Amino acid sequence: MGNRITSLLGTTQLHYAVLGGDVEAVKRLLSTSSVNINSRTIEDGQTPLWMASLKGHEAIVRLLLEKRAHVNICAKNGCSPVYVASEYGHTDVVDLLVQAGAEIHLTDTENGNVPLVVAAAKGHTETVQRLLELGANPNHQNKNGCSPVHAASQNGHTDVVDLLVQAGADIHLATTDENGDIPLGIAAAKGHTETVQRLLELGANPNQQDKNGRTVLFEASLEGHVAIVRLLLEKRVDVNICANNGCSPVHAASQNGHTDVVDLLVQAGADIHLATTDENGDIPLGIAAAKGHTETVQRLLELGANPNQQDKNGRTVLFEASLEGHEAVVRLLLEKRADVNICAKNGCSPVYAASQEWPHRCSGPTSPGRS
């Protein structure tokens, strides 16, 4: 999350001494009657205790707390001293702050994160363990519904996932945003094989779908994570569960030219003739052709895909490749005796498509990848 000290406007001598980790200077300043121990920087609202907590200056935190510095004064972004100490893994500082009355359930104003979420996201195992011992909620969800397990899974922190689950974290929780992501799906999409394996061992459902109907296998196939696809197939996942728009994992793999993944899916029973259920009715071969993935097109043809299959608009695979100008794919299809005269429903032929400059509809599964 970067360096949170972005502005020094309104910074006092005490702030500067804290930032520099100068214990003697802090002692000297605290001994004067004129010092405002809770003074805040103008732009960001950061107190000396906040800065000391961020930097992990344990001795200075002790001094400030002895002088009754307020432990729950947050910066303007809602981050408290214990929040930033947790974010940067300063476990001893977290302990000191909580002993002095710090509230570990305070959320930041931007995302609604608590200290446990940011510690989990950064993989600070010791800090996560201490926060849990101190009563942090392992199932807290931020404004998007992201929990500590989501945060740890996103970044592949398997040890943190273990700790959270032992403390009662729900690995089936879905985010509350438009995607409805689950921890297993997030880990799979990011390619964190070890985390995926551990979540499966902990009982995560490999066939659970998000709000868009996308399975964990879909996510891994879309991103081309071969090791995770293998792992999921070993768990006997259903290879033909489609997203809400009818896109299957093999559609997703074809979209991005992941030929090895296509192979694995077909070996496990994936149907390469499935068409999407949206207004286009795309097939994997047509998607790969439209994207210019020659190797994937060749493999799908070898696996028995029909080069003359038409989508809902009557467009063939050759039409798609011609429209997008993918010469190598066109040559390959012609070698396979694709019919050059099959027209779309509007009467347009592949040669017409190749000769025109016209607005293209988006090829491939309807937004299989998220923006």
From TrEMBL:
Pfam families: Ank_2, Ank_4. SUPFAM superfamilies: Ankyrin repeat. It comes from the Eukaryota. Keywords: ANK repeat, Repeat. ANK repeats lie at residues 9-42, 44-76, 77-109, 111-143, 144-176, 179-211, 212-244, 245-277, 280-312, 313-345. This is Ankyrin-1. It comes from Geodia barretti (Barrett's horny sponge). The lineage of its organism: Eukaryota, Metazoa, Porifera, Demospongiae, Heteroscleromorpha.
